What we know:
By secondary structure, the chain is mainly alpha-helical. It is 42% helix and 0% strand.
Amino acid sequence: MSLSAAGWIWLGLSVTGPPPPTAAPPLTGPPEGHPERLRPDVPLTPGERALQRQLTARSGARGD
Length: 64
């Protein structure tokens, strides 16, 4: 047990266990200029429109 404690000290780790968890910061979404920000002034690309059609068709079929 002594050698185990010495190893923990040599590695710089705490013998008492990990530190208590801290509260995570609140989620605020992507930062300014991030490509995933919603831009209502920019029209959807053809690929995005196709995805939108697929998603709305699926949600309509389930009755959502």
